[in-house]
Structures are given as C-alpha cells and as structure tokens.
Amino acid sequence: MYHKINFFKFKKLIPIALIFLVAGNVHAEGFTKNDPVFSQASENITGKILDQEGKPVAGAVITVIESGATATTDAEGNFSIAASVGQNLSVSYDGFEDQRVRISGTSISINLQSKKDTSIAEVTLVGYGSQKKSDLTGAVSQLKAENFKDGMNISVDNLMQGKIAGVRIVQSSGEPGAGVNVSIRGIGSIRSGSTPLFVVDGVPLSNDAVSAQSPNVGLGNTQAKNPLNFLNTSDIESITVLKDASAAAIYGARGSNGVVLVTTKRGKRGEPMFTYDTYLGFSSVIKKLDLMTADEYRAAGINKLYDHGGNTDWQDELYRNAVSSNHSVSFSKATETGNYFASLSHMDQDGIVLNSSFKRTTARLNAEESFFDNKRLKVKVNLTASDIKETGIPNGGNAGSDGQVIIHALMANPTRSVYDETGKYTNFNMNAHYNPLYLLSVYNDKTNTFRVLGNTEATLRIVPGLNYKFNLGIDKTMSERNTTMYPNVTDRTPKGMYVQANLDSYNVLLEHYLTYDLSLNRHNFSLLGGFSYQKFKSTGTYFGVKDIAAQGAGVAPEINPGYSGTAFVPGAGYAQENELQSYFGRVNYNFDKKYLITASLRADGSTRFGLNNKYGYFPSVAVGWTMSNENFLKDSQMVNELKLRGSWGQTGNQEVTNKITQASYSLAQSAGYYLYDNLNLINGVVIIRTPNPDLKWEVVEQTNIGTDFSLWKNKVYGSLEYYNKTTKDPILFITAPPLSPTANYWINAAGEIVNKGFEFTLGSEIIKNENFTWNFDVNGATVNNVVKNLPVSAIYSGEVSGPGLSGVTANIYKNGYEAGSFYMLNYQGVDANGKYIYEDVNSDGRIDQNDRKIFEGAIPNFTFGINSYMKYKKFDFSFSFIGQTGGYLVNNTALNLNINNLASDRNVLKNFYDSGASFTNQPQLSSLYLEKSDFLRLNNVRLGYTFDISQLKFLRSINLYVSAQNLFTITNYTGYDPLVDTNKQVGGNQSLGIDYTTYPSAKTFILGATVKF
Description:
Helix content is 6%, strand content 47%. The protein has 11 helices and 53 strands.
C-alpha cells in the first residue's frame, strides 16, 4: 500500500460549462454591437500583399482590427475583405514584421518587411507558454527544424547533439533504438539519474522504460531501450531546452536536470503542402579493434594446442554492412480559423551486428480550430501512435564475461574457423567461451511496443488579455518481449528456455491554468496561475517455459509456448503507481522594453515521498536589462541587441523508486518459530525496509548570469553564461543507525554535488546575398564537478566485468572529488620479466586493494560543437563537428582482452602483446585500462541540390541530398567509441564512464530526397 493524497475532486476545480456560459455573453475584444465601429457600413476592400522586393506573398493573414474579420492572400498575393474606409488592417506572415495599415480606399497595396534575423527577435517556448527571446531572463536555447542534425536519427535526443552548449548526448549503445544518456550542465545526482524532463506538445513524459524488460535466459539483461524512440523526428518543429532554475522551476519536482520541450509541426499559412521524405542508408562499424591476426597469434609463442589451423577475422564475421530506409509523408494546411498537420512514416533499420534490427511505423495528427466570435475559443489536438518491432542480440551489460556475443567475438581465437568440416558451427568446447555466430543462431529476442501519446488543449478568451487553458493528455504503452534460448552445446541454459515479458503503462495529465496579459503605458505584465495533476501506472508480468524442444522442431515457443517444455515463473510480476499534484504561478514584468523581472513558484505534492514531506516548494526569480534599448546604445552602429540577465531558483528531483518511504515486510524461516508440538517451523515476519516519513526531494539550487547579444547587423551574435548548480539533500541508501530494524535505510543525506562552469554560443552570418548564404556557429561549455559533505567515507559503483573480477568496482563518490571518479591500482609499466608494476601506495611491500588511488573521472571538463551551413544558388552544404576534452573512460572491453588470454586459447589486443607483458599476468583493474575520452568528430556532413521545377504546377520542389554521419573521429581512445557509457550501476548508485563490450556505433552514408507538392 502507498499513501494517497486527497486531490480535492480536481475535476470540479473549474466548471467548464459556467465559463462557456459567461463567454457567450461577452463579445469580441470587449466591443458590443452598439459600438460605432459596428454601425459603420462595410464594403468590399481588395488589395495585394507584396514583400520588400515586390513579389507577391501567398498565405498572409489580414485582420480588420475593429471587427475581427479575417482573410488570407491567394497565390498572387491578392485578398478581399469586408471593411470600411478609415478602419485599420493588421497583416501578418511568418518571417515578416507585422504591419498595421489604415484603409484609405477600396483598393490598397501593402509591402511587408522581413524580420530582423537575430536570435533575440525569435519567439521561444517556455513552460506553459511562449515569450520573445528579447523578454527572456533565463537560460533557454531553442533549435528549429532547419537546425537539426540531418541523417538517420531514431530519437529526438540525437537531434540536439552538438547544437546546444552544456547539453551532452552519450549513447549507452550503438544498437538501433538503444538508450541515450542526456545530461545538462553536468551530473547532479548519485542515485536519481541525470536525465532531463521531456515535455512533448505540453505533456510531461515519464523517464521510466516503456518497452518490456529484458529477461535473463543465461546471457544477462540487455540495455534499456530509448523511451523517446517512438517519435518520428521528421514531425518535430522545434526543441527548446530550459537549462537554469529560473526557466525550469515552473516544472518543480522534475526540473532539476533541466527540461526539454518538444513541439511537433502544424499547418502553416499559404497553399496546402504535401511532403514526401525518403532516404536509403548504408552503415558499417565505426572502427575495428586492433586484435592479433591468425599469423600474429601463431607467432606469439602460444601453446601449440591453441593453433586450430584456421584464419578468421571474427569482427568481420559478426559485423555487417547494414541497409536502412525511411519513408515519410505529411500533409499540412492552414485556414483562416485553424491549421492541420498529418503524417505517416515507416523506418526500417538493420543493425551493424547480425540479427539486430529496428522497425517503426508512426502516424500523427495535429489539428487546431477556432470557434465563436473573433476566435474566442481555440481547440488543439495532438495525437501520435507508433508501432515498434525490435530484434535484439545477447549483449547484456550485467552478463559478466560469458554472456556477451560481442566479447565472445573479440576474444575468439583467430585460428579457429566459423564452421567445422561438416558445415556446422565450430564447437569451441570451452566453458564461458563460445562461437559467437553459434550463440547468435540459438538466441532469439523480439520486442513489439505500441505507444499512443495525445492531448487536447482548449484556450478560451474570457475577456481581452485573460485566457483560460485546459490540457488533458494521455500516454499509453503496451509492450511484449519474446526471448528464446534454444537448447545448445554451451553451458548457458543448455536445455533451452523461453520467456515472455509484458509491460502495460500509462500516464494521464490534467491541467487548468489562467494567463493574463496587461499593458499600462510602458508597464507590461504577464501572469500565469494553474493546477496540474498527473498519474503514472505501470504493470509487468512474466511467464516462461524451460527444457524446450530443439530449434526447428515443431512450433516455435513464441507462437505456441505450450508445445514443449515445463512452465515456470521466471520472475515476480509488479505494479507501480504514483501521483503528482501541483500548483504553479509565474509573473513576468517588463518596463519600457528595458527592465525585466520574472518570478515563479511551484508546489508539488507526490505519493513517492514521506508523510511529513508530501509537498515541496520550488521558487525562482530572474532579472534582465536590455541595454540596447537605452538611449546611449539605441543608435549604435555596432550593437544591435544587448541584454544582461541573472537568475536564482530551486528545482527538484523525484526520480526514486516508489514506496521507499514505507516499511516493507517479508516471511522468512530465519525469523520462524514452532507454534505447535508437531515441530513444523512457521515462517516469521522480517522487516526488509525501514520507513522514513521525512524523506523528500533532492533539491537543486542554481544561480545563472548571462548575456545575449547581436553585433554589426547580425555579423556576430550569441550568448555567454556562468552557472553554479548545487544538488542538496541527495537521496541515498546508506548504513542505518543503531537499533534500526534493517542494516540500511533511505535518507536525505547532508551532502552536496556542485557543478559550475561557463557556456558560450557564438554565431555569424558571414555572407548573405541573393546567390550565396553562409552561417557559422560554435558552442562550448565547461563544467567543474565536486562532491561535498557526504556523511559516509565513500560510495562505490561501476561494476567491472571479467574473469576473476567479481565484485570489483571502478567508480567512487567521495568528498572533495568529482562524482564517479575512478578508483583503481596505478599501473606503472612492465618489469624485465614482463610482470606488471603497480604503485605500492601504502608502502607495505605488497600490492592489494589497499593500494588503490583515486583518478580523474568520466565527466569531460569541456564539450563543444561546430556547425556551418552554406547555400549557393540551388546547392546547399552543411557540416557539424562535436568534441570533448578532459574526461576519462575505463576500457572494460580491453580488460577482457588482457595478455592472460594468450595462456587460455583466446585473443588479445595487439598492443598488450607488443608491450612485452607476460602471458601469466592476471587481469586486475588498474590505470592500464584508464584512457582519455578526448575526441573530435565530423558528426554530420550534407550536400544537397534543389531542382527548379516551376514548369510543373503540381510540384513545388525536389531536393536531393547525400549525407554522412560519424564520418571520422580523431581520438587516442583505443575502444570503439569514446562517446559511450555502459550502465554498470551497483546498488542503484549511478555508474559513469565505463565501456564494456558496447554495441559499436556506426558510420552511415545516406542518399535522400525531399519532394514538396
């Protein structure tokens, strides 16, 4: 049982029917039919809308200010509207300044002027609304569709890579659809993760897994899939990142790691648009590890019994050239009262490892319509559905050294052959080491996930400036995973096993809020107040069959589990439910477009936390000064835009396991007693979790100082930031005080994790003329991370895998050091006998675990991105680089390919043999396997050409392009990819910077086309 909040019958907070009744008696913009403007006789006003070059503008919206009547220009820029001479017209169109014109005759012509092309002039999303960037006081970055990384992007988080300062995207695996680790401004938690809150079209998502969990059939549990891979990236219009507490505090208990707002496309003004996007991709492994070849292996002085007469490059056998394709069609249209966007897409991606694949079909419908007088009521609907089919491989991060197909391929003796003389897979006849191709052949892992995300938003203008908004959202997922290990000749489930795992989850969102905009001379106010309720629920079930029939005999167990074998329960089912009730408010004040103040407060109540701390309160305040609007800069030829801003705020992190604040009990023989004289032992009750009613959120307090600028007519523009972000009250599972019923308990410890640094974004519109445009930008961020005031001497995590390394950890959380620093022996070289030399730290004459040292951690102290876009006539060319410096990785893969393998019929990395090390060296975690993760990567490059097809009236444009991803990487890291992080947590404590036989990244070449009708 868990404690439920009394939610005060939230559905009755605001009677919708009453508001509609009031609205029906209030006329547009406060006018009544007795006002003079309504009594004037209307006539037909015709006109033409042109741009600054005299070309017609199609789709411009013309509104009669006094009456609210609207019209839209046709393809030639013409319009006709009912109005009277002397009234005023408002003309608006995307990319142009709004125009206000007084009607002087029955026929008029209006020329629009392009907006200033500066980032400060843009409108940017914020929590529960939008603002001009010139009015922002927080650290907010926005990407639009034209800024996204071109190429094969399964998930929305890939689109941000290298584009936003302070946002680091790290793959947990190169497997299609695999999870991605996103961190904003460093690592701020030990147990609660560093993933930001993602909000899609106004619906906050849960960061919990949405595909069925991987069962362990003897080969470990595979990495969790990316919960964001259900979105078709072609449907995304913009991505906005709220980085500081001032921007994110409106999301309270879930804003500590930053907030990412994802907005999907909708219909735009102009003619209806039909778009077809397609590409064909060819992928291969990003690099191969430098292992010993068969000839080198034979010449290394190995035991002659280990020469099996073959010559096999096992990496070539396991990896393949993979082909992928994508097809997406969309339709969009905007009318005078609304807009519509619909899309359908299908992606089919083969992985670069045999037997792995990702297939996704998505459908989306976004619609918005206005009702009543002068668009008083606006109703918006967003709906997406996706069906994902994945085929996985046995590559579990917790499988040790004997359940990973990739480590088997890397360790495989190159003198072995894939097949024996009879054409069957060669049997290695070894424990914990198998023919990797055979292992793939007896393993089958298929997951089907269906997800629907949708919301309805209604906005009602009660009186001018006062709007009521209602938002109802639902996120529903159903997933089934079928995993089969057929009977085999290895020592991993030799009699076979089939397991089906099911997941059913949903979250429902209900929000009511009011916004009020008021202008009094030079004083401008924007007020927000609201209520939010969100409920999350997930259930999981398992069933299995062991001792199944041989592969190919009869019916496959995923089709008919009852065909053969014995049913069993592979794991307990589960059900989790939690609720979040919130009240929030925000005030924005702007005086004379020069002086800005923003203040917000959110109160969150959660069922996850203790009885004494059900609610948390998260305030923020920020100020800004637009110096460029001051008289002393107003006419400056150098400074076009210049704003200084500062903010302070608090956010929370509630990403902890449900029910941990409450006691938990179990029956156990150890606490049993003899109730009767028959000597039958009755199980007793054991407390397995100590309650803590005082447990509360982790709190992140952040200070931010920044500036935005545009100089020399947009030749140089950007922003600079300094941040200080401190996590307080971290939630830990530590040793309980004396007399507690359990050895450990959950507590808010008196520790801190501090992240501070600088961020910059610099861009330039280097060239802009009729034939040639060249934009260039660079972004970078520093981070200095340190742990302070922990009440324990150290916390360990980062389990290392390998023979004889059970229980060895690589990460340490300790006061005065970076979170997740590395803790290991200090390797100093090889002696004359080939033995490894380690530093004797305590000078006791022997090397043991007491000689471990703390080394720098995984968090890079500088990350950066470089992006460029050029367009010459009908050619377009773009490229992007990403990179980092100052971080380290534990190459756990290399640890498994150590020199000792030459004494046990396995392969090694060539550089270990070349070092002169003895075959008898036993593997130990040391700085020998600690490597810098510095790199510079050409992340993406694209060349396109747009064909002139103006002679075909039904076709607007065709853009053909070629692009490449991960084309080359400059690094000294010897593993597959320096931008990787395998989840090797221990006891729920976050691991950092471990690379263990991760599914490698791919380099991809793409041929694509975008056709617009």
